Amino acid sequence: MIYKTTLQHITWSFDSLKILMAKASPFRSGDLLAELTAGSYEERVAAQMALADVPLARFLTEHLVDYDSDEVTRLIIDTHDAASFAPVAGFTVGELRDWLLSDHADEITLRSLAPGLTPEMVAAVCKLMRNQDLIAVAQKCVVVTAFRNTIGLKGRLSVRLQPNHPTDDLKGIAASMVDGLLYGSGDAVIGINPATDSPATTGGLLNMLSDIREKYSIPTQSCVLSHLTTTIGLMNKNAPVDLVFQSIGGTEKTNKSFGLNLSLLQEGYEAALSLERGTVGNNVMYFETGQGSSLSADAHEGVDQQTCEARAYAVARHFRPLLVNTVVGFIGPEYLYDGKQIIRAALEDHFCGKLLGLPMGVDICYTNHSQADQDDMDNLLTLLGVAGCNFIMGVPGADDIMLHYQSTSFHDALYVRKVLGKRPAPEFELWLRHQGIMDDQGNRLVVQPSHNLLSAI
């Protein structure tokens, strides 16, 4: 179908919904690389005006990626909840935007609406919103998940403790873990990116994490971010797997490039559930995503990168995850060139994920060849804290010495909790008090060399 609008006596025409969505997207380097972006600001505004008039129901019949050839599209369409969609079924994209920003769209209403929205719908309305709008709506979406603690409650901000090491040295990892715990990080997950994906290495890291967690009765969950097939193999050997990790994308071809499909994800999900390791909940999956992953795999199917990213959230939503993390600036300047583009993309991802009912966290990060710096990350950290982000990363010194990129530090987490009055997950907060790490007001206490956690290293 052709979409048209007239702007200052000039008629702009867009040959398909896929093209219209791409032209309406705020500028970013990845869409330019894919030759999808609008050719001018005027064309972008014209596309946004035309997109505002598109009925939401159109996205259920005009698929951006072919239904017959893409299992992510089939998942989106076949699992769509028509009853949840009914209250907004008569809206256009522009009307959905206005409604989301109104007082009628409150926490309870948005929670009930989430199963009725498709990724393409939320990606479309996102393209019509300023950064302020994205924050205002996301802040109203409360998504709570649980495993050994409860993540996502109002007034809470959790932290993934990321103690990576370039050689997977157990002592080095343990030192970073203890460092993070003593700064109040680790309630989202203690998650290690292994330097190698060998089952032996992954198994050793899992055992070490489990031993330390059990020795100190830490109410959190652990994860080694190995490939799904490695984790399934280890679960079959009774390894202490809490969360099953996998990077996912928004098209079948993207996921194939990651060595997976929906059937394999289902196998991992069921295996993790069968272990019954959670104590306060059974959300067992941890997914990571990022704008540009489909394009980098030449698997974007002509869809703009923000919409591809939102489609990945349909995959995540199907498996009721504990955590979904958009690693927003990790992929590099070819896809998000500078701090401005990284900030916009992070707010988009957080908004889209939350509106779809996902427990969104953000790795507030950049690579050293991007036109960004730590001041940009400070800005983004504060904005996401206001927006109600479920969790962020805690990396020693904000510098991941294994993955070679810049993220947020344990100190950054203390900062944003302090200035915004945020607290850790309740079970973890109680543990921090009992350990003498924090007081009742959330202030960090001085830890003596004799503290029992230091015996872990």
Automatic annotation (TrEMBL):
Alphabetical UniProt keywords: Bacterial microcompartment, Cobalamin, Cobalt, Lyase
Domain of life: Bacteria
PANTHER family reported for this sequence: ETHANOLAMINE AMMONIA-LYASE HEAVY CHAIN (PTHR39329), ETHANOLAMINE AMMONIA-LYASE LARGE SUBUNIT (PTHR39329:SF1)
Required cofactor names: adenosylcob(III)alamin
Pathway(s) of this molecule: Amine and polyamine degradation; ethanolamine degradation
Protein's name according to its UniProt entry: Ethanolamine ammonia-lyase large subunit
Binding site for adenosylcob(III)alamin: 194, 246, 296, 402
Enzyme class: lyase
BP GO annotations: amino acid metabolic process; ethanolamine catabolic process
Catalytic activity: ethanolamine = acetaldehyde + NH4(+)
Subunit field text: The basic unit is a heterodimer which dimerizes to form tetramers. The heterotetramers trimerize; 6 large subunits form a core ring with 6 small subunits projecting outwards.
Keyword NADP attributed: no
EC number: 4.3.1.7
Species of origin: Flavihumibacter petaseus NBRC 106054
Recorded GO CC terms: cytosol; ethanolamine ammonia-lyase complex; ethanolamine degradation polyhedral organelle
Gene from which this protein is expressed: eutB
InterPro entries: Aldolase_TIM, EutB, EutB_dom_2_sf, EutB_N_sf
Cofactor mode of binding and number, as noted: Binds between the large and small subunits.
Gene Ontology molecular function: any one: cobalamin binding
Family statement drawn from the similarity comment of this UniProt entry: Belongs to the EutB family.
